[in-house]
Each structure stands twice: as structure tokens, then as C-alpha cells.
Amino acid sequence: MAYASRIINHSKKLRNVPNLLRQDHAVLVRCFSNGAQSSVCKIEAAERERVSKFVACNHVSSGLPRNNCSRAIMRLGIPTVGVAYSRELTCSQVQSRRGFASDAVSSLPPHQEIGMPSLSPTMTEGNIARWLKKEGDKVNPGEVLCEVETDKATVEMECMEEGYLAKIIKGDGSKEIKVGEIIAITVEEEEDIAKFKDYSPSTSDSGAPAAKEPAAPPPKQEPVQQPVSSPEAKSKPCSPPSEDRLFASPLARKMAEDHKVPLSSIKGTGPDGRIVKADIEDYLASRGKDVSAPTPKTKDGKLEALDYVDIPHSQIRKVTASGLLISKQTIPHYYLTVDTCVDKLLNLRSQLNSLQEASGGKRISVNDLVIKAAALALRKVPQCNSSWTDDYIRQYNNVNINVAVQTENGLYVPVIRNADKKGLSSISLEVKQLAQKAKENSLKPEDYEGGTFTVSNLGGPFGIKQFCAIINPPQSGILAVGSAEKRVITSSGPEQFQFASFMSVTLSCDHRVIDGAIGAEWLKAFKGYIENPESMLL
């Protein structure tokens, strides 16, 4: 019976070979489309050749004992998500490898090494939020193994093949796991689980970088013969000390350190220009400081330490910090601010919400109307719906608006796709759903990638009157929306003055893409839609 079960298992593997070959075909297509070098494609061809060897071995093993087949030393790499991982080039994503070894090399049975997947284009490392399967559990294709915290969100990682979870290498809460690093082991037979109880991956398998080759020793320098000084030169007196060197008494140096006084700013009055205690006291007195003011100290005479708490960086905060730093350092920002009258907008919103409540729909916010107006303005002035590259300016035909959402974990920017073509009720529903997913840290890559412009609103939620936002690369513009406030304005009617509500908005522009006149034209279009909101419904 055991021999027959092995033959059945081999036949199952043979039936799965076409799927594996189709995976390799997709791998090669991705490899060429990403412009990878030919060496990576050769690696993928080698992977297919090893699959063929695996098939041949299984044909032979169906008529021979299993031990004979296991004597062939093989290590078969089968990519499960995207392209296989290479040390020199990464065509991208996750690496899952099936291990076969001879008895002389290892006593471990056939198993699959599951690597940390690349779940977003910018992901280089991830964290394990929690495992939904435990060691010994049976796993089937499509079942969720664990939740991975990427640089953008928390994403579910699914199992690709049937088997048993034999070993969890990286447990709950594991941090900064490199893409491709082994996180778990699966096996095909339940009785093989116990053999991986004390298993630990080798350094070469764990994704750790290879040890660097020792640097070549520097070339030996031939000793340079120093000229022999003459007796007259030796008898000459030593040159005076450099003017850059400062002489001060030990007490003066201590006082200067305690009060953070630079010695270079003090002229010494002691012998040979030495700085003494009186010089420090005179300098502090001239700055209006009390020399005798005691430094805060504890009972044992030591300086009182600051009380603080170190908060670890979340993945989203690391990525946000990196992106914002690059944006401010590499993008030439400039800012345009305009005040828009929102009385008609608020009246229209009130009418629309009455209809929404009557039909059981969600209420429409001012921010929903702002997103719609921004999208239509981008359609009217497409130069602002562009990105800068070294060779050209890419102008987008899609108007996808990112909306800034603040959460406890950090700042997220989910995207509303084709916002210029959607109705206000659709925009309102999408914004609420994406904001909820952002707060639950459950956004998927398709929920935040592909934006062409960003809207950030600190007016409605926080009452900020006006601010300047930082551009979200690779976009070339972001709109900062302030709060609405009532102002007194002149009137052409019988009354000289009247009240009106105004909202300040500031457009941050990349000057490489958007010239000042183009940015002003966009703001003019945006203001027209806000002050005449009926035109957005046409």
C-alpha cells in the first residue's frame, strides 16, 4: 500500500507540471517586460530545465523505489508570485523553493521553503503581523497563511500548494524580514512534520547577503627619504603656536562647557592671551546670564536625566518619511493660494444630502465636492495631471485622485480612480470605504497605487485655515484645502456689506512640470467649479 501511495503522489505531481511550466512562461514574459538583463532570463531557463529533470526523475521513480530517486541531488526553485529572486538582479517578488537532497547531504524529506513575498513595487522588507495557520496544520491552495505588514498596508499571504505547515521560521511580530528570506517550511506528508522540529535555514538560504570579499591590500609605498636638517636649523627656536589653537585654564574650559560657550568667541586676558575664569564670567554677564544659576541635579549630585519614550517606526511611517524627504530635496516646489466663496457649494450640498437621506444613501461631504472639482479641473488643464522623468514629461489620460487619510499608524493616500467620470455619490462611498480600510490597516496595493494628483484636507476635520502640502512623488501637484470661514464683503445691493463663506486652498506645484501660469490657470478652473457647483453636475 505504501508503494502504491507513492506512485499516486508522483502522478499528482506530474499532473501539476503543466501549471509549473505555465508559471515559468509567465516568469519569462515578466522578465522581458521589466527590461531585466539576459542573465536573469538564463536563470529562468535553467529553472525550466530543472523542472524537466524533476519530471524525468518522477517518471523513473514511478517504477523504482523512492530511495533511488532521492539519490539525485537536486534543488528546484519554483517561483510562486512574480519572478524568481536573484542575488545580482531582482526581477521581483517572492521565492518559494522545493528542496530535494541525497542521504549523504541531508536526512530531511522533500519540503518547500516559503520566502517573504514582495507585495508592493517599493517593498524591500516586511513584518509578520500574525500567523493564521499554526505548525502541523494542513494547508490548501488559496488559504491564508499569515498577514504581512508591507511598506504600505497589511496584506494577506495565501498558500500556493497543498501540504502541511511543518515549521514557522519567523513568528508573530517578526520585524524587518528581507524579501526572499525564508519564513516557513511546508511538507507534502504529515509524518514528515516532526523531522523539521529543530530545522533552521542556512545563511545562504535565509536571504542574508553574502560575505564581502576582503579588500585588496593597498600598494606598498616606498619610504620617502627625509632631507637631513642642518645644525643651524636645529638650533633655531620653535615657531610660535598656531593662531587657531586656544589656550584656556582648566576651570575656564569647564565653565565654557557647562554654559555651552564657544571659546573661539572669547578673548583671553590671562598670560600670553590665555582664557581664564574671569573672561568666561564677563562673557556670560554680557549675555545677561546668571553664572551662579545651578544646573538641575538629583539628590546624589548627578544631572537629572530627561524622561522620554522611544516609539518604534511603523513600515508606513518609514516609507512616508523617505518619500517626503526625497520630494523636498529633489522637487522644486512653489505654492499658489486662492480664496474661494463656498456659499453656493454649501447650499448645493444641503440639497443633495436631503435627496441622499430620502433614498438611503450616504451623505456627501465638502471634501467629496472638492475631489470632483479637482478632477474636472485636471481634465480642463491636463498639464497639471503629469509627472516628470529625465527624458520626458508623462501626461496622464486617467484622472486618479489620491486622498490623504490620517490614521494611528501613519498617513495613507488611497486612490479614487477616474474621479472626473464618477458621480458625487460614488466618490463619497469610495472615500468612506477606503478611509475605513486605511484605519483598519487593510489597504491592498490596488487601493493606493496609480494616483496622478493628491488632495489633502486639514480644514474640515481640524479647522486649519491654510497650509502648504508636500508633493507626493511621482506626481507634480497636490492641493491643500483649508477651512471655510465667514467674512464681511462689500455688496452691490442696498446694503453696503454682507457675510460670505470663503475657503482657502493652496496648490503645491513641481516647477519642472507646471509653470506658474499653468498652475494659476488650474486654480482658476478649480475656483470656477467651486463657486458655480452646478457646472460639476453637467
UniProtKB/TrEMBL annotation:
Cofactor(s) essential for the protein: (R)-lipoate
Region (Disordered): 198-245
Location in or out of the cell: Mitochondrion
Cofactor info, note text: Binds 1 lipoyl cofactor covalently.
Domain Peripheral subunit-binding (PSBD): 247-284
UniProt xrefs under InterPro entries: 2-oxoA_DH_lipoyl-BS, 2-oxoacid_DH_actylTfrase, Biotin_lipoyl, CAT-like_dom_sf, E2/Pdx1, E3-bd_dom_sf, LAT1, PSBD
Compositionally biased spans, kind Low complexity: 222-232
Residue ranges of every copy of the Lipoyl-binding domain listed in the record: 111-187
Keywords: Acyltransferase, Lipoyl, Pyruvate, Transferase, Transit peptide
Catalytic activity: N(6)-[(R)-dihydrolipoyl]-L-lysyl-[protein] + acetyl-CoA = N(6)-[(R)-S(8)-acetyldihydrolipoyl]-L-lysyl-[protein] + CoA
EC primary class: transferase
Its EC number(s): 2.3.1.12
Family note: Belongs to the 2-oxoacid dehydrogenase family.
Reported function: The pyruvate dehydrogenase complex catalyzes the overall conversion of pyruvate to acetyl-CoA and CO(2).
The protein's name: Acetyltransferase component of pyruvate dehydrogenase complex
Organism for this UniProt entry: Gossypium hirsutum
